[in-house]
């Protein structure tokens, strides 16, 4: 059967609807179908296998909605561009449809649907996915330049004219990924000239205009979208984020106040609460989160996340008090941490709980208990941590005096920020990043301190310790050649080709492309010869500076 090799995941909390949908798909010839009642069931499966198509219901009962699930899975790289995403919902509210459109699904199926309509939609999605397969696979590997070139070839061929609009939309998104914001803006402008009612093109033009540096124009376009039911809330969130970047927190707050608390998305509520915090309005932050938490009591995942957000507020309150006055705030924080992990189990929630409990121990002055928690298995597996947990981790390791681990986790936090699909989360993460950077101190000073310590270990031939310190200096200041050369030299001396995210060959290539001082160039030449003898290089070592003719 033509469809038998297509892998499909159904995410639907209603058992009868899930079974009916599966039966419909089997009648259409699809055989490889996985069924899941919510995102937490799908997540571990996605770590093991790829799906060609995901059918996602919007309302998932006692769990996060489909858009929240998709955002979370995209953030963790578990949904790739080559996976077709089809949303299914009975909800026709503009606010809900707008949320779905924002995650760029391939199609939206409204309930009640006919089998014929469902089959037609899925067939079109799969055909489009196959046609774009060369582009999407490059996007899976973050090869956006090559993906854009391949997409332009397909557009020029024009063998799927009905899909041209979606291909142009994808082209604009790729240009944005590549930082070519003016070109992306031109595409959105052309679309809006044909019809000024296309809302996704309006948002795309606003984003491109802002990213191209014309903040004033983008703000003007957003102001025009206020006081309209369909666009007001999103425009307010966007204007608030722009003013946060300007550090005009009162004005950012004014825009957030224009959204009713009951209509704040989870990420918008968190952003608003953090805005209160940076303005020393902790009681307002707590009141907002408590209200949001209570309204989500029946959505367990949201309730747990909001419990942890509240706990962070109480930990921050405790931190700002003298040691004798911290007890009542820490008691509430511990209660909230415990309530968040009562109904949901797994390594991710354990890591969140352990880091926050370790922070409470640090604030109580019990560093030994904090260190016991930090030594537990999985506590340094940063790949699975979200931004708030990474921020907690930086704070906790700094609290017990391990600046190397704190610095490394802060680098991971910064690296993850750019991959967040939700702009509110990205802005909130940026605020957390700044706060942690202030706690740890100046980057260059930290890099120099790690480098000095690394040199001391190197002189004692304690290469494992030296490598890690040089690595920390390199993470903080990769543009400083001395740090890179020290790390590479130590790795070669220790016979270590890889250390965490550092590769000896990549380091060598980076240094070979830099303009080095004569002393550093000679060091790189000597290191290169050692690497060549160990067969660590795919390219010949550079000539010695001593034999290179002077210009």
Description of the molecule:
With 551 residues, the chain is mainly alpha-helical. It has 27 helices and seven strands. The longest helix has 20 residues, at 300-319. The radius of gyration is 26 Å and the shape is globular. Mean pLDDT is 90; it is low at 547-551.
Summarize, please.
This protein is mostly helical and 551 residues long.
Label this structure with key terms.
globular; mainly alpha; five-stranded parallel β-sheet; two-stranded antiparallel sheet; 551 residues; 7 strands
Into which percent range does the helicity of residues fall? 55-70%
What is the terminal-to-terminal distance?
69 Å
> What is the overall pLDDT average?
90
What's the number of helices? Answer: 27
SSE-based structural type: mainly alpha
Question: What order do the strands of the largest sheet run in, or round the barrel if closed?
Answer: 2-1-3-4-5
Tell me what portion of residues adopts beta-strand conformation. Answer: 5-15%
Sheet having the most strands:
5 strands, parallel
Would you identify the regions where 5 or more consecutive residues have pLDDT less than 50? 547-551
The coarse silhouette is globular
Per DSSP E runs of 2 or more residues, the count of β-strands stands at: 7
Rg, nearest Å: 26 Å
Organism: Bowmanella denitrificans
Protein name: Response regulatory domain-containing protein
Pfam families: Response_reg (PF00072)
Coiled coil: 282-309
């Amino acid at each position: 059967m033509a469809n038998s090799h297509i892998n499909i995941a159904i995410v639907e909390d209603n058992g009868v609807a899930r079974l009916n949908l599966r039966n419909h798909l089997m009648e259409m010839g699809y055989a490889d179908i996985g069924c899941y009642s919510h995102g937490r069931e799908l997540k571990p499966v996605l770590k093991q296998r790829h799906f060609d198509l995901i059918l996602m219901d919007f309302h998932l009962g006692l769990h996060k909605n489909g858009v929240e699930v998709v955002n979370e899975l995209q953030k963790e790289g578990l949904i790739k561009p080559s996976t077709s995403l089809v949303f299914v919902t009975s909800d026709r509210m503009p606010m809900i449809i707008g949320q779905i459109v924002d995650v760029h699904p391939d199609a939206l199926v409204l309930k009640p649907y006919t089998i014929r309509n469902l089959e037609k939609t899925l067939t079109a999605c799969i055909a489009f996915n196959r046609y774009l397969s060369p582009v999407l696979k490059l996007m899976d590997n973050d090869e956006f330049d090559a993906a854009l070139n391949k997409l332009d070839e397909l557009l020029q061929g024009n063998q799927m004219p009905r899909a041209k609009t979606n291909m142009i939309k994808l082209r604009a998104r790729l240009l944005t990924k590549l930082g070519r914001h003016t070109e992306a803006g031109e595409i959105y402008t052309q679309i809006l000239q044909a019809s000024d009612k296309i809302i996704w093109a309006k948002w795309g033009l606003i984003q491109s205009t802002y990213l191209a540096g014309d903040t004033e124009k983008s703000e003007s376009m957003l102001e025009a979208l206020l006081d309209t039911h369909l666009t007001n809330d999103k425009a307010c969130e966007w204007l608030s984020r722009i003013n946060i970047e300007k550090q005009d927190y009162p004005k950012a707050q004014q825009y957030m106040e224009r959204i009713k608390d009951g209509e704040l998305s989870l990420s918008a509520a968190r952003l608003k609460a953090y805005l209160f915090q940076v303005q020393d309005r902790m009681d307002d932050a707590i009141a907002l989160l408590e209200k949001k938490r209570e309204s989500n009591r029946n959505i367990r995942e949201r309730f747990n996340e909001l419990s942890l957000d509240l706990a962070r507020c109480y930990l921050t309150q405790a931190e700002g008090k003298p040691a004798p006055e911290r007890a009542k705030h820490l008691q509430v924080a511990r209660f909230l941490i415990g309530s968040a992990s009562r109904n949901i189990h797994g390594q991710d929630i354990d890591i969140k709980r352990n880091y926050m409990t370790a922070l409470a121990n640090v604030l109580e002055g019990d560093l030994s208990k904090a260190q016991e928690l930090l030594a537990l298995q999985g506590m340094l597996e940063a790949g699975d941590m979200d931004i708030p947990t990474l921020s907690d981790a930086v704070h906790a390791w700094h609290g017990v005096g391990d600046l190397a681990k704190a610095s490394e986790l802060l680098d991971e936090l910064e690296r993850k920020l750019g991959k967040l699909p939700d702009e509110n989360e990205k802005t909130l993460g940026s605020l957390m990043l700044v706060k942690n950077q202030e706690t740890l101190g100046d980057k260059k000073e930290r890099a120099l301190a790690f480098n000095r310590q690394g040199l001391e270990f190197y002189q004692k031939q304690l290469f494992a310790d030296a490598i890690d310190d040089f690595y920390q200096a390199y993470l903080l200041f990769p543009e400083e050649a001395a740090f890179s050369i020290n790390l590479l030299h130590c790795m070669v001396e220790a016979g270590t080709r890889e250390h965490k995210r550092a590769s000896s060959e990549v380091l060598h290539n980076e240094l070979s492309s830099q303009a080095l001082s004569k002393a550093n160039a000679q060091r790189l030449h000597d290191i290169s010869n050692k690497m060549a003898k160990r067969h660590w290089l795919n390219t010949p070592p550079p000539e010695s500076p001593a034999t290179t003719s002077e210009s």
